Amino acid sequence: RFMKKKKKFRGSLLKAFFRFLFPCSLFLVSSCIFRPEYSRPVIYKYFTDKDDIVDQVCLEEMQALQVELSARVPRDVSFTDQLAEAILQAVLLARGNIYIQRFMDDRQAWVRSQSEGGKVHIWVRERWRSFLLRGQRDGIVADDLDIEQCVTWIALVQSLLLLRYSNEEPDENDMRRFVRRFVVTPMLIPAG
Fold it and tell me: I need a labelling partner for 89 at 20 to 30 A (CA). Which of 38, 96, 99, 106 fits?
């Protein structure tokens, strides 16, 4: 029941999130929803603060993008190509998502997302963990690397690529080569 009610807020919160972006206070979020059942006390019942709302919106959008990402990354290529393609396609998908873009535009939200204990980082880490561990087990990803550091590296680079291509269309082939050379290759066991 709690989760059902929390999900009911999503549509209204997304509209408020989009309309007022991040500068609004929780009071303004509740005001801009224009529905009496979504008063501040009700919002506080389901979300601890504005940051919690922002993080929840981001997580829900990232979960939706994850489904699309799974369809875009080929399974019949090498581990290295899958890793590079997953990083690249995640950036391309996020680049086209207005909510992720708003999240990235807000410095505090971005810093929270990079914090190892933050909701967003934990979710991202869990998406990458099994894949990277498989690469270590198979002797592809260097075994002296900490998976947490690898996830942090990937997340930072993806953020930088989103920033780099925020106002111009990326060349996918150039971006793919860049990701493979400067992001993926340093995580691999050096060729013999």
Answer: 106
Residues linked to residue 141 through DSSP beta bridges, in sequence order? 188
Q: Between vectors from CA 131 to CA 127 and to CA 132, what angle results, nearest 5°? A: 105
What do you get for the CA distance between the two ends of the chain, in Å? 57
Rounded Cα distance, 80 and 164, in Å: 23
Longest dimension (CA), the chain: 66
CB-neighbour burial class of residue 178 (10 A; exposed 0-12, middle 13-18, buried 19+): middle
Cβ 98 vs Cβ 22: under 8 Å: no
pLDDT digits (tens, 9 = 90+) for 103-123: 777 777 777 777 777 788 888
Question: Tens of pLDDT along 145-191?
Answer: 999 899 989 988 998 999 898 888 999 999 999 999 999 999 999 87
Rg of the Cα trace of the chain? Answer: 19
Closest CA relative to residue 155, chosen from 186, 115, 117: 115
Q: Is the pLDDT of residue 141 over 90?
A: yes
pTM over 0.85: no
